[in-house]
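Incident log, support desk, overnight shift.

02:14 A customer reports that sequence design results differ from what the structure should imply. Their input is reproduced verbatim below. On-call engineer (initials T.W.) acknowledged and began investigating.
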């Protein structure tokens, strides 16, 4: 039964990734390439590699919390935070790439940073490993915050 839930967590997280990727694809090949980008902007191939790895870690992390808590009721608050940050993750793609609005995307990604940090703290109460698995995600998202702000400033 535990493996079934693992696949469910993977499914939810990667469904969000697919939705974000679909929105990103609408402008990554044209609008995004015309933008001035800040120093340290990675090559385009880096983003899907890193994000897929991070999505995998996110799903494992949430599954660990559920498994250790023993039920969705017991893990309700931390998993609700997890769902919230996952929603803001998708919202950033919609705002940045779909609406092509880097300025508004700054607000979304800052809220995402906070939501990830809160999720890490909530996960710590259940599993140190689950919290640690989200650390690379927070670090990458903080880097993405730098990139988002840089793009907004350079293209104002």
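02:41 Re-run completed on a clean worker. Output:
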């Amino acid at each position: 039964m535990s493996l079934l839930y693992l696949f469910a967590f993977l499914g939810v997280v990667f469904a969000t990734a697919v939705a974000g990727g679909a929105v990103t694809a609408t402008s990554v090949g044209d609008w995004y390439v015309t933008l001035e980008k800040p120093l340290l902007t990675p090559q385009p191939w880096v983003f899907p590699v890193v994000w897929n790895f991070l999505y995998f870690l996110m799903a494992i992390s949430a599954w660990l919390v559920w498994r250790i808590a023993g039920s969705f009721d017991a893990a309700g608050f931390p998993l609700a935070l997890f769902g919230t940050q996952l929603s803001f993750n998708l919202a950033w793609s919609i705002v940045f790439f779909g609406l092509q609005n880097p300025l508004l995307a700054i607000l979304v990604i800052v809220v995402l940073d906070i939501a990830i940090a809160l999720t890490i703290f909530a996960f710590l109460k259940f599993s140190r490993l689950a919290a640690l698995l989200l650390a690379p995600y927070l670090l990458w998202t903080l880097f993405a915050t730098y990139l988002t702000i840089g793009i907004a400033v350079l293209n104002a």
